């Protein structure tokens, strides 16, 4: 539907190889709430994390390419949500450093992010604040050559595993971003909630955490600009994860419908089953075409095409939910067995519609853009 060029096909091949290596232990990895070293080693050896860091700091591309990132996440998610998160968070967690960090800070961390020798985290959400990030209460004040952070962050991916957290804070009347190394005194980290789709999650407490002034990211009071730039590159890559998951669910259901017989014929010959599979195939192809196109547009002008990235995220993650639900139905009682692959996919599909912009939040902002004349 959307022709990938030879460079994108090459990186897709590498990502598919990593996914295939992880496949034998994917179920185990997707239960992990700490770093799964099989996934880490496979990803590190592939060199794929270099695509989330600018070339000047050990990365692959001068400017990050959302289509490359999308193609990689689609392939990784096909196999394992843990693997996909490990790759995605290296980019999401470090991008405000790439864009807004002081030179020496970038030199210190980004080459390690590219080789997975440092794990990145992004700390925005708080116990009482999710979608409405302007309501955060974590504060930062300048004190001589240092910045002092106080507050709490919640549901942070890689919490406890990350080497640094790019952290959103209130500063005077605005919102700022600061990089806090995990080893900084005063930063306490506890294990986060257990989710239906297990995930490395941490709860962070900042008690008079002091970092040097050069750990500030971006312009004081202008953190939302940094976050917008991060979303403009990475939101569409979550959509790609949805496509990878949907493809895996469709493949699982198809295999079952081809091999199981009822009423003297394979399930796939029953009209209602074949309709479901064909509908899912249509949904997967439509989502993939939309995601690739939105990612290609995001490469040329990420902020200018954020609406399309938001639409792609809504469309692909909602499609993934429908495809995986139809797949469970197609598999009958076998789709309900705890520990089966389709059950894992069913659970892994659910968070995609909540994090990095819940569906309703994205639709709300798209509606406002539509009313203002966007098209
Ligand atoms: C697996 C996982 C990993 C995460 N990792 C991170 C991380 O690394 N860093 C981080 O900072 N956070 C992380 N989060 C938190 C995530 O960003 C929040 O869950 C998300 O922003 C939504 O916030 P909330 O859950 O508090 O929902 P709420 O803000 O309480 O919203 C609940 C629901 O209300 C509706 N809603 C809310 N606002 C609107 C609106 N304006 N218009 C219409 N409907 C609306 C939506 O349906 C939404 O799902 C993670 C969450 C999960 C599940």
From TrEMBL:
Family: Belongs to the acyl-CoA dehydrogenase family.
Residue span, Acyl-CoA dehydrogenase/oxidase C-terminal domain: 224-370
Cofactor(s) listed: FAD
Record-annotated Acyl-CoA dehydrogenase/oxidase N-terminal domain positions: 7-115
Record InterPro entries: Acyl-CoA_dehydrogenase, Acyl-CoA_Oxase/DH_mid-dom, Acyl-CoA_Oxase/DH_mid-dom_sf, AcylCo_DH-like_C, AcylCo_DH/oxidase_C, AcylCoA_DH/ox_N, AcylCoA_DH/ox_N_sf, AcylCoA_DH/oxidase_NM_dom_sf
Acyl-CoA oxidase/dehydrogenase middle domain residues: 122-209
Alphabetical list of SUPFAM superfamilies matching this protein: Acyl-CoA dehydrogenase C-terminal domain-like, Acyl-CoA dehydrogenase NM domain-like
Highest taxon in the source lineage: Bacteria
Name of the protein: Acyl-CoA dehydrogenase family protein
Pfam families: Acyl-CoA_dh_1, Acyl-CoA_dh_M, Acyl-CoA_dh_N
Naturally occurring in which organism (per UniProt): Nocardioides deserti
Listed CDD domains: ACAD
Sorted UniProt keywords: FAD, Flavoprotein, Oxidoreductase
